[in-house]
């Protein structure tokens, strides 16, 4: 078994004070860092994704350029590449070995599987090359990018756990629905206290 921690979009624009702030986002960032500090050898690989949208244009309809955002399919401008909003939250402390995945370049890019690393390799190909079989999923936001990433990981053949104490969503109802959908699809919902158990 090769296990990876997959950290979704713990970025300034998705935490308190950001363009699309998720309540509890900063606490999630700090809690993920605490988990990594307490369990430095629990993961064979660590991947962290970021929205990395183009500054120009609407990123294939993702940004509401001429109309008000509907907060379902269209959104205010956020996580533009090379801006402070796109950077990881300062409470998220990643090891040097972490692999950084950029997604949403010119497109919506909800799932980490839409992203690439610094060398242009697709995330799914990186998992195969690393022999990853098990994924622990954490980050933001439960009801959007965590949901999409988890469903894609299951479709990719991974055993997926979602640490429900290390995610935060846009809204309570849609977050609960997303977790239920992930569980129905085969994900295990667990506390990060179970990090050492399969």
UniProtKB/TrEMBL annotation:
Keywords for this protein: Hydrolase, Metal-binding, Pyridine nucleotide biosynthesis
Broad EC category: hydrolase
One GO-annotated biological process of the protein: pyridine nucleotide biosynthetic process
InterPro entries referenced in this protein's UniProt entry, alphabetically: Isochorismatase-like_dom (IPR000868), Isochorismatase-like_sf (IPR036380), Isochorismatase_Nicotinamidase (IPR052347)
Pfam families: Isochorismatase
Known pathway: Cofactor biosynthesis; nicotinate biosynthesis; nicotinate from nicotinamide: step 1/1
Leader peptide range in chain numbering: none
EC number: 3.5.1.19
Stretches assigned to the Isochorismatase-like domain: 4-193
UniProt-listed PANTHER family: LD05707P, PYRAZINAMIDASE/NICOTINAMIDASE
Protein name, UniProt field: nicotinamidase
Species assigned in the record: Cryobacterium arcticum
Species classification: Bacteria, Bacillati, Actinomycetota, Actinomycetes, Micrococcales
């Amino acid at each position: 078994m090769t296990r990876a921690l997959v950290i979704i979009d713990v970025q300034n624009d998705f935490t308190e004070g950001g363009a699309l702030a998720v309540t509890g986002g900063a606490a999630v960032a700090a809690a993920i860092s605490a988990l990594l500090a307490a369990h430095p050898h629990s993961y064979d690989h660590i991947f962290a994704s970021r929205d990395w949208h183009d500054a120009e244009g609407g990123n294939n309809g993702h940004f509401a350029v001429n109309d008000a955002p509907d907060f379902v399919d269209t959104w205010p401008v956020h996580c533009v590449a090379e801006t402070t909003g796109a950077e990881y939250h300062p409470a998220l402390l990643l090891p040097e070995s972490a692999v950084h995945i950029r997604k949403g370049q010119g497109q919506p890019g909800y799932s980490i599987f839409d992203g690439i690393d610094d060398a242009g390799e697709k995330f799914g190909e990186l998992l195969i090359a690393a022999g990853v079989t098990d994924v622990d999923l954490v980050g933001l936001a439960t009801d959007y990018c965590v949901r999409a990433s988890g469903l894609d990981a299951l479709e990719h053949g991974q055993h997926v756990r979602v640490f429900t104490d290390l995610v935060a969503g846009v809204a309570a109802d849609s977050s609960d629905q997303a977790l239920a959908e992930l569980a129905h699809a085969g994900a295990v919902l667990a506390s990060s206290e179970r990090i050492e158990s399969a």
